[in-house]
Write a structure and sequence with these properties.
Number of domains: 1
Shape: globular
Structural class: alpha/beta
Number of helices: 11
């Protein structure tokens, strides 16, 4: 039977609710901490909880927290947020990307790169399977998604090994998959590996597709069956919201509305409302972006409310499901 694995237990897909498909509610990336990049340290439980309250007040019910171990995952803190706010949180097994691997890997005496270089594909698979089925970071809290990533137009040998090991873990467990793409590059190249390894692309959610606002590229990726995550909402330094909405509606015109997910990828203190910087906060997408999207979708001849339900309710139910 299919289910969604959250930090407070496995649930039926229909119980997930309104979902952000990519955010970071609590994380202390080891490399950024070593470099004293304080804006990336989402490490205040009370401040995170206050921001989650903005999300729930706007109707939010669940979050996929895309923080892997190399980006400073803390499953205990995430479970506390879930229990105190009532939201469902799906946590991340696997790894992010090689740029984070000079950071120290707790409990190993070395870096993530040392650990990855010192372990075979099969050993990395077993590690990810354990995170999905036994527990993460010495706890009994299990990941609900298996993640891999690649760099900016680059795939290192180590990233390739991790990617294939994570795909192996998926084949063993039926866990859903999530991939990091740096600035939306190498989307089709990742999908080629997925298919080469005999994995159904429909089990994969591809992050950061909106950093590369190329409608042809998006359409080709969607034609494989993969889910596309638009998680750069509010990041005007990359593209105005109009560009993202145009890309989303282009996919809808080609019949891919059932493969679109939305999140904020909030991973800086300055993006949160309650970390002392006065950012837009976790409520922004539901409070401000969704009404704009619904209006513009209507102007383009679509049912904006129906698309909202697809992107935030129906599609996450399918994207994040375990199917052993």
């Amino acid at each position: 039977m299919a289910f969604i694995r959250t930090l407070t237990g496995d649930i039926a897909p229909e119980d997930l609710g309104v979902t952000y498909a990519h955010d970071h509610l609590f994380c202390v990336p080891p490399l950024w901490k070593e470099k004293k990049l304080d804006d990336f340290l989402i490490d205040d439980l009370e401040s995170s909880i206050k921001d989650v309250a903005l999300f729930t007040a706007a109707g939010g019910q669940a979050v996929y927290d895309a923080t892997a171990i190399d980006y400073g995952r803390d499953p205990t803190a995430l479970k506390a947020i879930s229990e105190r706010t009532g939201i469902r949180i799906i946590a991340t097994a696997g790894f992010n990307k090689a740029v984070m691997w000079p950071g120290q890997m707790a409990g190993t005496g070395g870096t993530f790169r040392d650990w990855i270089d010192g372990h075979s594909r099969a050993e990395i698979r077993d590690h990810v399977v354990s995170e999905l089925t036994v527990g993460m970071d010495g706890t009994d809290l299990k990941g609900g998604v298996a993640k891999f990533g690649t760099g900016y137009n680059t795939v290192s040998d180590a990233e390739d090994k991790v990617m294939r090991a994570v795909l192996d873990a998926h084949k063993e467990t039926g866990a859903p998959l999530h991939s990091h793409t740096e600035l939306g590059t190498l989307i089709l190249e990742q999908l080629a590996v997925v298919k080469e390894e005999g994995v159904d692309p429909a089990r994969l959610t591809i992050a950061h597709v909106d950093r590369n606002p190329d409608p042809w590229l998006h359409r080709k990726a969607a034609e494989t069956g993969a889910f596309l995550c638009f998680d750069g909402i509010s990041r005007i330094k990359y593209h105005p919201e109009s560009v993202l909405i145009d890309c989303i509606l282009a996919l809808v015109r080609h019949g891919h509305q059932d493969q679109i997910l939305v999140g904020g990828d909030i991973a800086r203190r300055t993006m949160f409302r309650n970390y002392g910087e006065g950012g837009l906060g976790l409520g922004y997408i539901l409070q401000s972006w969704v009404p704009r999207f619904v209006e513009q979708a209507g102007e383009a001849g679509f049912d904006g409310e129906a698309l909202f339900r697809a992107f935030f309710i129906d599609n996450p139910r399918r994207a994040f499901v375990f199917a052993p």
